[in-house]
Structure formats: C-alpha cells, structure tokens
C-alpha cells in the first residue's frame, strides 16, 4: 500500500514532521506525534519544539509562504542560538508521515528560515520557499568596481594566505576591539573583511569589520558594523581576513589578482557627457 492509498482509506495514522538543518550542519527533527519517529537519517522528537501553520503554495513562481511556531527549549531550539543567528537561513523540510509506517510519507514543504521573532519563551519563524532565490537579481552590471566577493569562485584569491588568528587584547563597548602588537599589516587592511570567532559561546559566528586603525604603539583597533550576538571578552581567539574596496588598484597592488578582476575600470562615467572633448577645446 502506498501513502496515497493509505490516505484514501479515510482511516489514517498520519502526523507532521519537520527537519531543520542549520548552516553549520546541525540537524534537528520535530514531530507533532506523541512519540519519536526516525527516517531519512534523522530522529524526530515529539513535543512543542516546532509546529507550522497551514502551508500556502501556488503553481507559479510566487514564494511559498508559511510560518513555523515553537517554544524555546534546551532540548529543542535554544534561545541563545536564535539570538546568535545560528538559525538564520537554515533549511527546513516538512513531511506528512504515516507514523505507523514512516516509509510512507509525502514532502509538503522545502525552503529556508527567514525572519525570526521572539515572544517571551516562544518564537515565530518565517519560512521561505525554494522560489525565493528567483527574486534576487542575477547577471553582471557594467561598472568600474569589481563585482566579485573577495575569495569567492570568481575572485579566486586564497584567503587562507592572508588570514590572521589572534587573541583579543581588550573590548571596548560591544563592537570595538584592541589587538596588542599587531603592526604587520598597513592601516585599514582589514576594513570590509571578516572577523570569525574561534572559541567560546560564539564559536563560528562572524562579523564584518567597519574600521581598522593601526595605533601609534603598534596595537590595532577594529570596529564591527554590528555586535557579535554571543558577546566577546578579552582572551578569546578570532580569525581576521582582509576586505577589498573593489578597485582595480587594490586588486593589483594588494592581492596581485588583476587577471580575475570582475569590473570594467575603463568604462566612461556619467561625467563624460559634460566633457567637451578635444575637438571642442580646439
């Protein structure tokens, strides 16, 4: 008997199961059944860890729209992990399952987690369907600046050659950090780069560097655009990678990577319309 045959009997033993896969690879399974289930290499735990409203789906390219609801629980979804952003962009799959025979199931939804809001000890997560990436503009733009991201497949710079792992000397506020005796690199070298936390509660979290200043005593002050949501303290280890301002000169002089430059540095700017040209000057 197939799953559709089981549904056609009118006397069913079905439940819903959800699997959340975070970007760091951690998987969590949840079900609204009163007992645990296992299939597809995942254990689905009962309880109030996660539930979902009715799924709205269309036949066109509109984004599937639904919402997941849950209760913050140390055995399910932890409050601190939501605060740290570890569930941002996580993959979500939802099945209708015959709990008497989990091999009989139907995938009802696949997508990612969007915006998450908290309400006391509960949370609500927007679910975005697989058509969501189709709303993102694709293709190249004709502009002087490079369109690649430093270190990606188009840029091809090996960032491991430039990465620096250091212990934080002191913390000022929530986004400013001092690193002692760190003058091997020029002023502003790490601006637009990434700071990745290597240990402590925030291990694996990253932040974008807003400013990087080399101080007279050889120490270095870095400021992030936004705080690391797990918080950082002196002595924690972080890895810093440089940023790029997308200019041809930076690509050539700092990374020796002109062959992979993805901009059009010689394209005329808007001011060329106001340039009278050599004939008018004559």
Automatic annotation (TrEMBL):
It comes from the Bacteria. Residues 188-271 form the Bacteriophage phiJL001 Gp84 C-terminal domain. This is Bacteriophage phiJL001 Gp84 C-terminal domain-containing protein. The lineage of its organism: Bacteria, Pseudomonadati, Pseudomonadota, Alphaproteobacteria, Rhodobacterales.
């Amino acid at each position: 008997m197939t799953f559709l045959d089981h549904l056609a009997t009118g006397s069913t033993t079905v439940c819903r199961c959800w699997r959340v896969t975070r970007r760091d690879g951690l998987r969590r399974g949840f079900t609204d059944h009163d007992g645990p289930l296992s299939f597809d290499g995942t254990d689905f735990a009962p309880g109030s860890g996660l539930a979902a409203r009715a799924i709205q789906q269309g036949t066109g390219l509109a984004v599937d729209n639904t919402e997941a609801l849950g209760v913050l629980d140390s055995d399910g979804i932890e409050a601190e992990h939501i605060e740290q952003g570890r569930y941002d962009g996580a993959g979500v799959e939802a099945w209708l399952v015959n709990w008497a025979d989990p091999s009989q199931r139907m995938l009802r939804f696949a997508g990612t987690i969007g915006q998450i809001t908290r309400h006391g000890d509960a949370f609500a997560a927007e679910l975005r369907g697989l058509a969501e990436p189709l709303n993102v503009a694709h293709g190249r733009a004709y502009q002087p600046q490079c369109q690649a991201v430093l270190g990606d497949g188009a840029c091809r710079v090996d960032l491991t050659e430039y990465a620096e792992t250091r212990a934080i000397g002191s913390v000022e506020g929530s986004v400013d950090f001092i690193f002692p005796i760190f003058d091997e690199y020029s002023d502003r070298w790490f601006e637009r780069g990434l700071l990745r936390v290597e240990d402590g509660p925030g291990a694996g979290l990253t932040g974008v560097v807003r400013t990087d200043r080399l101080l007279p005593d050889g120490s270095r002050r870095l400021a992030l655009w936004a705080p690391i949501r797990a918080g950082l303290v002196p002595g924690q280890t972080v890895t810093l990678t440089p940023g790029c301002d997308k200019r041809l000169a930076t690509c050539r002089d700092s990374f020796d990577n002109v062959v992979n430059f993805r901009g059009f540095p010689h394209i005329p700017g808007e001011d060329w319309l106001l340039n009278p040209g050599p004939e008018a000057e004559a």
